[in-house]
Amino acid sequence: MKKRPIIIDTDPGIDDAVAIGIALFSEELDVKLITTVAGNVDLEKVTSNTLKLLKFWNKSIPVAKGASCPLIEKPVYATNVHGESGMDGYNFEKGDSSNLLKTHAIEAMYKTIMESDEPITLVPIAPLTNIALLLKVYPEVKSNIKEIVIMGGSATRGNKGVMSEFNVAVDPEAAKIVFSSGLNIVMAGLDVGWKALIYPEDSKLIKTFGTTGEMIYSLFQHYRGGGLKNGLKMYDSCAIAYLLKPEMYTIVDTYVDVELNGEFTKGTTLVDLKGYLKQPNNVRVCMDIDQEIFKDWILKALKKCI
Ligand code: RIB
Ligand code: CA
């Protein structure tokens, strides 16, 4: 079967690490490029973490560094969730810098997209700074982008602000540019991320999945994206899950915009299910997830990461 060509834009990040592993070992996905962006931790650390993961899994995928800060906002990190390194809990071998391109992420994305003989799917699982810059600097890439499948946003409440999700809240201006791009956008936000849970018994099973299982289990002991007792949130795997098993989701075609001016609400994704804003639909929003299907899927997917 022909593999789907994708570019992952990421800020590892413990949940990013799980999502990247699943994508790298999937028989259905062809990861053409991984780009990094400041998010969970700073650009140097997320890039170093990406290279460490490729070394750990012995994969040779081009990596390109992107934006070190949001378009307008000051950088905000999530070391409280992922630890100082961004992937606390496991002592990784240093990554192999031969995978690291000298070009900026948007140049690497531009080249990969324009040279692809079939439309590319972008999978941003981090703040959308790189994607916004790409679309502004090289709008011609839109002709060869199949879909943008985002981990980000929320139809309800936030995990960074009262109403704002971290990836959108870190760079709301970038998110607005992406949501209003006219491209096919899929949003896997907190509405599904909060239900995409790994419980202690699942964690113990994952630990038996070879070296990958041991590594992930160790990271989970430090991951503060939820509590081990009431479930760790596999936010970023929700974007990969859409590519590999979309039937686990209840999806709604609707209009989504991003609040930029609210004193308390900047970074909120307004999911206009009732059409109050009288705008055409621009995003397919994953509004619900079958938790059993997700659990079965992620355990099977992680078992393949050997
Ligand atoms: O809100 C969850 C998102 O923020 C995930 O991508 C996580 O890695 C953090 O970047
Ligand atoms: Ca992330």
> Which class of secondary structure composition applies to the elements?
alpha/beta
Number of helices: 12
Helix amount: 25-40%
Global Rg: 18 Å
Mean pLDDT: 97
Care to count the β-strands? 13
Q: Could you give the distance between the termini?
A: 21 Å
The string of secondary-structure elements, in order, is: EHEHEHHEHEHHEHEHHEEHEEEEH
Number of spatially distinct domains: 1
Beta-strand level of the residues, as a percent range?
A: 15-25%
- Any low-confidence stretches, pLDDT <50, length ≥5? none
Can you name the CATH architecture? Alpha-Beta Complex
Main β-sheet, in a few words?
A: 8 strands, mixed
Fold and architecture overview:
The chain has helices at 14-24, 43-56, 79-82, 105-115, 129-137, 166-170, 172-179, 190-193, 200-206, 210-220, 237-244, 291-303, and strands at residues 4-10, 29-36, 63-65, 120-124, 145-151, 185-188, 197-198, 226-227, 231-233, 249-254, 256-258, 269-271, 283-289. The chain is 34% helix and 20% strand. By secondary structure, the protein is of the alpha/beta class. The protein contains twelve helices and 13 strands. The longest helix has 14 residues, at 43-56. It has one domain (4-303): Ribonucleoside hydrolase-like (Inosine-uridine Nucleoside N-ribohydrolase, Chain A). Bound molecules: alpha-D-ribofuranose (RIB) and calcium ion.
